[in-house]
Structure formats: C-alpha cells, structure tokens
Amino acid sequence: MAIRMTGLNSGLDTDAIVQALMSAKRTKQTKIKSKQTKLEWKKEIWAGLNTKLYNFYTSSLGKIKSQGSFKTKSANSSDSSKVTATATSAAAEGTYKIKVNSLASAQYVTSSKLNGAKDKDGNKVDVTSKTKLVDLLDSSGNTTFTAGTQISIKGKSGLSTLLIDENTTVNDFVKAASNAGLTASFDEKQQRFFINSATSGADQGFTITAGTLDANQLNSINSLKEAVGYSYLSATDKAAVSKIFDQLQDGTIDTTKAEGSLKKYLEKSQKSAVTAYYNQKQTDYYNNQYFTFDANGKKNGVTAAGEQAWIAKTGKTQADWDKLSASDQQKELTKLVTDKVDADMKTATMKADILDGVTNGINDPNAGAFLQKDAATRSMALSTSIVTFKGQMSNGITAANNQLAGVGLEEVTGAAVAEKADGTGMVVVKASDSSITFNGATLSSSTSSISVSGLTLDVLGETAGSEVTISVTKDNSAIYDTVKDFLSDYNSILKQMNTYYNANSARGYDVLTDDQKTAMTDKEVELWETKIKDSLLRRDDTLSSLISCFRTNMAGTYTASNGKTYSLASIGISTSTDYREGGLLHIKGDEDDAEYMDETNKLQQMLNDDPDLVMEIITGLTTNLYSDLQEKMSSTTMSSALTFYNDKEMNSQISDYKKQVTTWEKKLLEIENRYYAQFTAMEKAMASLNSQQNYFSNMFG
Q: What pTM was estimated for this model as a whole?
C-alpha cells in the first residue's frame, strides 16, 4: 500500500474528506446490495412456501382425490376380549363368524432352579453370570460339564455352538443363545435361565443339545482356528468367524463357500499378526535402550540414554528430569517408547517389512508357526483345515442326557415340557401359530394378528368353540373427518398465501447497512427487516396465479355419474360472506366452526343418505386442483421441477447482483486511491512551497 500523506502540510482531515466523497460514490453499490438481499429473502420465503405447497399436493390433496381413501369401514366385535378387528376399504360390509382355536406363542424355556456351583475352595455358592460352566452342580451335587463338551443351540438364525473349556462362563452360554437369534438371560435372583424365540409362530422353535467332542474333533477345531489366525482377530471378527464355523458344521454352507469367506479373515489376521510382531520387536528394542531389568525380566530402573531421549523429546532440562519420582520416570519413558513405536510403524521401511512378512512369512525361529508361513502356505493350510473340520464334525457328537443338568436343562427338542410334580425340572412352552375358523375356513398366522378379506383380526383369547361376530359397516364419521381434515389443510395454505399477497407495503424501507444497524438496537433491526420480508410477495404474479388456481378449482362444478351438476355448496361447503377471508372454505353446521355451527350440517346429512355421491363430488373437484398444481410445478427455463416459483430465474438474478457488487468494489477502490493520490500530490506541492518560503525567508533574514 502506498504511503498516504494525510494533512501534514494542509492541516486538512484527508481521511474524513475522502470517506465523505466515497459515501456518495457507494450509493449505487448499496442499492445493488439491497436488491440482492431482498431477492435472497424473497427466494427463502418462496422456498418455505414451496415446501408447504408440495406437502399439501402429495399428502392431503393426493389422498383425497382418490375415492378409495374415503371408503373407510368400521368393524365391531361381539366379544372384544376374544377378537378385535379393524377394516380397510377393501372389506365387504356384512357380518363374519370367528372361532379362535389357538393363540400364537413363542417358544419359552425356563430352566429348573440351579443347584449352585463350587468355588475354588470346593464350597457350594450361588451362580452368577461370571460362574464357569465346569463349576456348575447338578441336583446331586456333581459337575456335568467338562472341557471338550459342546453345547449346540439351533434357532431361526441357524446353529450356534459353544465349545466349553475351563474358562467358559454362564454369560458365554447366554451369548451363544443370542447368536442363535434367541432372547436369553440368567436371573441371578431366581437362579434360572430364561430363553425364548424372538417372535411367535410354529416355525420359531429351537433346540438345545450337548455332546462331547472326541480328540480328533477338538484337534480339527484348533487347527482351523490356527489356520485362520483366530487369535489375531478382533472380537467382532472372531464372532463372525465362529458363525462360519457353525454354518460349516450345520451344513448351511459348503467348504468352498466357507473357504471364500474365511480367506477374508485370514488376510486380516495375517496383517494383524505381522504388525503385532514388528510392534513388539520395536517395543523390545526401545525398552532395552531406556530401561534396566532384574533377573526376572521386570523393569527396575532407567538408563542414561532414556534420560537423554526424554529431555530431547520434551525440550526440558536435566533438572526437570531429576524432579520426577522413579515411578513417574518409568511412566514417562513408557509413553516415550509407545510414541516412538507408533512413529516407527508409520515409516515406509516398516510398512515394506510388514508387507514382506505377510507375503513371505517371518524369518525368525522365535516367531510362532503361523507367522513363519508365507501367504500361500497359510492359504493352503486353511483349505486343508476346513475339509478336515467338515469331515470330523460330520461324524456326529457323542451326547449324554445329563450334560445340560448344570444349566438346569434337559435336551430341548421344541416339544412342550411341563414342570414336574415336585416343582422341579425345566418348563418348555411350545412355539405355535394362531388358528381361527373364519366363516367355516381354518386360517393361521405366526402372530396374534390375522389379515383376511380386508380385515385385520387381533386374536386375544380362545373361544372354546363358541363364535364371535364381526360386523363391518361404512364409517361415515371417518369420511366426514377425512373431508374436514382436508379442508383444514386447504384453508391453512390458502390463508398463508393470502397473507403474503395482501401484505402491507414496505415502501421507504431499504435493507439496512452495517452503519445503520450499529446505530439501532437488535430488536429495532429485527422489526425493520421483518417489515421488509413480510411485504416481499405483495401482489406477486406467481402467487396470484396459485391463489386463483386454488379458489377457481374449488369454486367450480362437477357433473356426477347421475348426470347432475354439483358444487361444494351443494354438499354444505361454502366460502364466508366476508370477502376478507379470501376464499376459505367452511362446513356449515360443523361444531368447530364458530361462524356456521348453528346452521344445518348438510354434509353430514348427505353422507348419511348417499356417501358415494359426496365422495364422487369431492374427488372430482380436487382432481382438477391436483392436475393444475401438477402443471404449475413442471420444469421450465425459469423454474425447476416440483417447484411453484421461478427459482432458476432468481438464482440467475442473484448471481448477476453479486457480480455487479464485485465490479463496484474494484471500481470504488480505484476511485478511493485516486482521491488519496490527489491529496497526496497537494500535500507534496504544499511541502515544496513551504520549503521555498523558508529558503527565501532565511536569505532575506
């Protein structure tokens, strides 16, 4: 920026003079900005109104123009404690005879009360969710689960298995049931398991069995886990892999598909295993640099190299380090090791080493067998392990009747089981469908709801052979409410358009400049801008066309199928005598209409006498309005599709205004610089003149 001489010789307030001159020059730019802001506000108002118009078009108007939406039926039950019913427009009027033979049920399994578990000292204690299955006791006080036992739960979501080892808990059993698509829990207060299918219906039954895997089967499972790198996977991926194992065992997928799915997880585990290996190598490297260790390999101090590394990393001094306690020094260096390892793992060299390790394996005799294999060998091992696993598990599992006793169960086959006479034993409620006799025909459903012939029947209780009568009639009150709701929506949107169109003028109100806003309170600014915004659609041609479309169509006539011509007034719907309402519609005699509530409700009378005629008239008139609105929101060169106003034209005008403002910004800057240049020239001339005067004064002293 050039140096500006501001009144050093003339004594003039150059800045104030230039700003005063520029204020006049900015008037045109201010007017352009005002036009741009008003147009942006106008577009925003139109966008909101457009949304309401489109919602009215698609919902209220779109629904009522179809005569089918009026065909509302009511269904009444002679015994609502046994059967309730709702009717659609497709239900034929008349009576229906219903017998409820059975109710839908999910399968429910309640275990017997558990006999407890032995703790580490051999004492009997209550069972918790963390209790190990191998510690559970049967009614005789014996343990029933041993490592190698497999619990198999087969539900709607397929087979879910739980291979028990010395660490498997009650909570693991609950999770296995959940994985089969069941709802399961263990109630520690009741000391019972509660398991049920998620939904009702005869096809929702499930089974729970247990058996002991032989050595070959256990080896096949362990080999398959090793082959897929199971231990290197995340908990989520482990669950997904276990599901594939179950599907392979259940026969729901073949070995080829299983291999394709498991290879995706093998790729993850390879990367994870090799990354973890290098991560540990780097950690060991820095630990050996920064720490000292005792004979058992436990950290017992820090090295001088560690001290210097910390000082270099933190930018602190030796004195700062010495102030730290021994434990804090170890914490600081442990964090430093983590940071350095993280940084190392991001280097190109380390990434290359990891990639090489995944492809070619780790050339380190201390690495595990999985890590030492190259990618091709791992893939081959997975393929072989899958085939072996499939073969071994297809041999079947040796079952024993008492293996589930620890969890208070016997083998669950899906059949109903009653509690024993002495109040012990598991209870099973069999999964079943609802069954009814409908006008002599037997129908069933997996839920308590049965849909038939336009009726939805909710069965609540068996009728023991007696009949419940369902009566279906046309619901004229619902038709009346449908018409009333439509007119409410119609009046709401028309009233808003009338308000915009008939708004008071905001002549003399221009968009405030920043300086003007500064001189006003926030409330004053808000009121000023609201005054302008409220007037922006006043006498708008597009809005006038829409209002006319609404009023003309709804004030029109329709020739019904009986050859007679009707209007809304013919069925008791008319506009007010108050022209200021702008064409809002009223149902004469409606209890909610304060102006006309004392008159006869002709609409209600006609619905009682001939509801089909009323529906025909209303659908005829509203179809015309629907068609006109559809045409008005079609795409043009000035408006987008599904838009009632000229959004494209507005966007173009706003863009032009922005360009003009930018052009004026450059032009005003040039003018301002010219003014300053002129004043600077004047100051220089006066400085020269003053110098000459001083010279002559000194000469003639």
A: 0.62
What are the percentages of helix, strand and coil residues in the chain, rounded to 5? 50, 15, 30
Quote the CA–CA distance of 241 and 238 in Å, as a whole number. 5
Write phi, then psi, for 368 (nearest 5 degrees).
-70, 170
CA dihedral 289, 291, 294, 296 (to 10 degrees): -80
The DSSP-derived string for 638-671 is SS-TT-SS-HHHHHHHHHHHHHHHHHHHHHHHHH
What are the residues whose beta carbons fall under 8 Å from the beta carbon of 83, sequence distance 6 or more? Answer: 77, 98, 100, 436, 457, 458, 459, 460, 463, 468, 470
Strand order in the sheet with 158-163: 158-163, 149-155, 207-212, 398-399
The two tokens of residue 92 are: 């034929």
* CB contact burial 495-508 (16+ within 10 A = b; e otherwise): eebbebbebeebee
Residue 207: is its pLDDT beyond 60? Answer: yes
Q: What is the structure's pLDDT at 413?
A: 93
- What phi, psi does 154 have (nearest 5°)? -120, 110
CA 327/CA 318 separation, integer angstroms: 17
As a dihedral over the C-alpha atoms of residue 251, residue 256, residue 262, residue 263, rounded to 10 degrees, the angle is 180
- pLDDT averaged over every residue in the chain: 92
pLDDT band at 8 (very low <50, low <70, confident <90, very high): low
CA nearest to 152, candidates 364, 332, 398: 398
Helix (H, G, I), strand (E, B) or coil at 633: coil
Predicted pLDDT at 399: 79
- Integer CA distances (angstroms), 531 to 32, 42, 503, 523, 528, in order: 20, 13, 10, 12, 5
Asked whether the beta carbons of 46 and 501 are under 8 A apart, the reply is no
What is the C-alpha to C-alpha distance for residues 543 and 50, in angstroms, rounded to an integer?
11
Of 71, 108, 119, nearest to 93 (Cα)? 71
Tally of helices (H runs) and strands (E runs) in the chain: 20, 24
pLDDT-above-70 percentage for the chain: 97
Number of other residues whose CB lies within 10 A of the CB of residue 632: 18
Residue that is written with structure tokens 């069999």 in the block: 430
Burial class of residue 159 (count of CB atoms within 10 Å of its CB; 0-12, 13-18, 19+): buried
Query: What's the token pair of residue 47?
Result: 């966008």
DSSP letters, 30-82, are HHHHHHHHHHHHHHHHHHHHHHHHHHHIIIIIHHHTSGGGG--EEEEES-TTT
Q: What are the φ/ψ torsions at residue 410 (nearest 5 degrees)?
A: -110, -175
Q: Which residue has the tokens 């599709």?
A: 641
Coil, strand, or helix at residue 218? helix
**491 Cβ neighbours under 8 A, 6+ residues apart:** 584, 585
DSSP state for residue 598 in the 8-state scheme: T
Q: Coil, strand, or helix at residue 299? A: strand
- Between 694 and 406, residue with greater pLDDT: 406
pLDDT band at 1 (very low <50, low <70, confident <90, very high): very low
CA distances from 545 to 47, 541, 579 (A): 17, 6, 18
Other Cβ atoms within 10 Å of 409 Cβ, number:
23
Nearest Cα neighbor of 362 from 263, 270, 288, 265 is 270
Name the helix (H) or strand (E) containing 427.
strand 427-429
CA–chain centroid gap for 106, Å, is 29
Per-residue tokens: 17: 């003079």
Q: Which residues pair with 132 in a beta bridge?
A: 169
The letter for the amino acid at 594 is: A
The residue type found at 75 is A
Q: Look at residues 625, 538, 628 and name the one whose alpha carbon lies nearest to residue 583.
A: 625
Judged against a pLDDT cut of 70, whether residue 166 lies above it is answered with: yes
| Higher pLDDT pick, 630 / 478 | 630
Q: How many Å apart are CA 284 and CA 291, to the nearest integer?
A: 10
For residue 6, the model assigns a pLDDT of: 62
